[in-house]
From TrEMBL:
Family from the record: Belongs to the universal ribosomal protein uL29 family.
Key word Transferase present: no
CDD domains linked to this entry: Ribosomal_L29_HIP
GO BP of this protein: translation
Annotated stretches, region: Disordered: 82-112
Cited HAMAP family: Ribosomal_uL29 (MF_00374)
Entry GO terms, CC: cytosolic large ribosomal subunit
GO molecular function: structural constituent of ribosome
Species this chain originates from: Subtercola boreus
Gene3D superfamilies: 1.10.287.310
Lineage: Bacteria, Bacillati, Actinomycetota, Actinomycetes, Micrococcales
Protein's name according to its UniProt entry: Large ribosomal subunit protein uL29
InterPro entries registered for this protein in UniProt: Ribosomal_protein_uL29 (IPR050063), Ribosomal_uL29 (IPR001854), Ribosomal_uL29_CS (IPR018254), Ribosomal_uL29_sf (IPR036049)
Tagged with keyword Ribonucleoprotein: yes
Xref: NCBIfam families: L29 (TIGR00012)
Length: 112
């Protein structure tokens, strides 16, 4: 892809869920509006950006339509494990505990 956003490649757009695609579409349309406004007031520096944003919008619409038609597969939602079910993190205190136990064991052995 020669022109367009490097972050909105079709391969990357395939991994987005529908809600994220809608958000990217909203951002791109907002950017296009701002670029057109800058163009009308003579403040636009990069005219090629207009073309790139239009292509990004078209690319997103294409992905959405292909998903509707069943041409592209919708990515499976990734389930995030809640923090309570995640493995407990070891803290410095937890790491120090075995060392303290070993020291206590040594002192009790010396006392015998």
């Amino acid at each position: 892809m020669a022109i367009g956003s490097k972050e909105l490649t079709p391969v990357e757009l395939d991994t987005f869920e529908d809600s994220r695609l809608a958000e990217e579409l909203r951002k791109a349309k907002e950017e296009l509006f701002n670029l057109r406004f800058q163009s009308a007031t003579g403040q636009l520096e990069s005219h090629g950006r207009l073309r790139a944003v239009k292509r990004d919008i078209a690319r997103i619409y294409t992905i959405v339509r292909e998903r509707e038609l069943g041409i592209r597969a919708t990515p499976a939602p990734v389930e995030v494990a809640p923090a309570a079910e995640a493995a407990p993190k070891k803290t410095k205190k937890a790491k120090a505990a075995p060392a303290e136990e070993a020291a206590v064991a040594e002192t009790t052995e010396e006392a015998k």
